[in-house]
Specification:
GO terms for molecular function: peptidase activity. Keywords: Hydrolase, Protease, Viral release from host cell. It holds the Pfam family Peptidase_S78. This is Prohead serine protease domain-containing protein. The protein contains 3 helices and 9 strands. The chain has helices spanning about 50-55, 100-110, 160-185; strands at about 10-15, 20, 25-30, 40-45, 65, 70-80, 85-95, 115-125, 130-145. The N and C termini lie far apart (about 45 Å).
Length: about 180
């Protein structure tokens, strides 16, 4: 039986202020609530709550994978929680593994800046614009990826200020919105 059957992936750039420190600790937002991704989905606040509670009750953790490959764990998520903005994660890249070492180096160099969540949709509804509002998700894993889908969040290597990240992200969002508006016309 394929354990990944029916597993969906939601790509996102790392959340605001995600950093990798010298000891390969990374933290930030893996998913932001209320933002439409390129697939037309919007994760709603509280979508992860039941899944996180079930994982905790079962003594399990959300897995940290490389590019969604279950054969390539690259670290551990020590903390995964929802807050008012989204799904916040904090973990350690295991630089003693080849992929963990590579991931840390790629993030520090700015060559890798994406996260993607692996999940199953438990509940979703369509809004009046045809977008899927994801209200309950079963979270399986959070991967480091090359090509994310949610353009509003990014990873930064240590030393890049969150304020600068926010400014550049805001400018990118304005250009993206303008591009979408022009495409509609």
């Amino acid at each position: 039986m394929d354990m990944n059957a029916g597993l969906e992936h939601k790509f996102a750039r790392f959340g605001e202020g995600l950093t990798v420190s010298e000891d390969a600790v990374i933290e930030g937002y893996a998913s932001l609530f209320g933002q439409t991704d390129q697939g037309g989905d919007i994760v709603q606040a509280g979508a992860y709550a039941a899944s996180l509670k079930a994982l905790e009750a079962g003594g399990q953790r959300v897995k940290m994978l490389w590019q969604h490959d279950p054969a390539q764990p690259i670290g551990v998520w020590d903390e995964v929680r929802e807050d008012g903005r989204g799904l916040w994660v904090k973990g350690r890249l295991l630089e003693s593994t080849q992929k963990g070492h590579e991931a840390a180096a790629l993030i520090r160099a700015g060559a890798l800046d994406g996260l993607s969540i692996g999940y199953r949709t438990k509940r979703a509804v369509k809004d009046d614009k045809g977008r899927r509002l994801l209200t309950e998700l079963e979270l399986w894993e959070v991967s480091l990826v090359t090509f994310p889908m949610l353009p509003s969040a990014r990873v930064a290597a240590k030393g890049i200020s969150p304020e600068a990240e926010w400014t550049w992200r805001s400018i990118a969002e304005l250009f993206d919105s303008a591009r979408q508006e022009l495409a509609r016309r």
